[in-house]
């Protein structure tokens, strides 16, 4: 298994939910975690536990994405892992969605993934290794009512990652995509009916363990895609 000790990992959307759980778990495994989110206060609280680096940033802003990578390299002198977790959603009938919501969701879910990958990939290729792990969603592979815009963004993100995977593999760089089902986080508050307190929902820690699983796979093992089922918690 790959040892995560002293590996440097950027985790976006780290202030809450899946991102926070992932940052905490990677730090526990010995990684140096660079936590990225827009909330400086929540990041600083997290950083007291991870003892890494907290960088308030908007992943949909190219200057911010470049700044995150530059600060990481300046602080630690290396970069091994990018966890693209930042995401937003809004759930409504198509005719009730505003174009501004389309822009916001695609900016974070698709453009944010694009910009963060664009910032790290040249470094990964130059050093001959690196691992991008993206938290997508099972809705990239299925559709549901009220999910037109969010589902479209996740399908676009999925296509981006699939193409990137083929581009970087000859350079020793891995790209893994995780597709969680329903996860018990604040994210559900924006869904019709509010928070669903289903015992069958995944926990943020379940997704964090899936991230750890793909990162710790032996160097010769490539986990391209990992579907995480909420009922059985199997992956």
UniProtKB/TrEMBL annotation:
Question: Looking at the keywords, is Metal-binding present?
Answer: no
Native source species: Hymenobacter sublimis
Sorted keywords for this record are:
Oxidoreductase
Name of the protein: SDR family oxidoreductase
The record ties this protein, via InterPro entries, to: NAD(P)-bd_dom_sf, SDR_fam
Q: What Gene3D superfamilies is this protein classified in?
A: NAD(P)-binding Rossmann-like Domain
CDD domains under this entry?
A: SDR_c
Query: Keyword Oxidoreductase: yes or no?
Result: yes
Q: Which domain of life does this protein belong to?
A: Bacteria
Give the family, as the similarity comment puts it.
Belongs to the short-chain dehydrogenases/reductases (SDR) family.
